[in-house]
Amino acid sequence: MAKILLIDDDVDIITACRMTLESVGHEIVEAHNSQDGIEKIRAERPELVILDVMMETHTAGFQLALKLHNPDPTSEFAEFKDLPILMLTAIHSTTPLRFEPDIDYLPVELFVDKPIDPAGLLSKVDWILSR
Which of 82, 106, 107, 108 is 20 to 30 A from 98 in CA distance terms? Predict the structure, then answer.
C-alpha cells in the first residue's frame, strides 16, 4: 500500500482519515501546517498528499500546492512536481467561490469537499494512486 501524508490543522479530520486509510493498509504520516508538511514531504517521500486549504492562512494549501507543482526545473521543490495532491477542504462551505483542479492555478489531482465519507475517500485515493 502507499505512504500518504495528511496535511490539515484539524486533528479530528486527520484522525478520521488516518483510521480510514490505515484500515486498508496505507501508511499515514501527518502534518498540521504547511511548513511541517514541507518538512515531512522531504523526509518521508510520500506517494500522495491529502491537503487542506485553510490552515495557518486562508490560502496556505493553495500556496503549498503551487510550490510543490512549480514547473520551473530550478525550483527548490522540482523533485516533487509530480507528487499527487488530493485537496480535501471545507472552503466551499465558507466562501461562495468554487475551486477545481487547474494546471496553472490549482495544480492538484482532485478537489474534494469536507466532509467525505470513508468509502468516498478510499475511492478517491485509489483512483489517484492507480493513475
Answer: 82
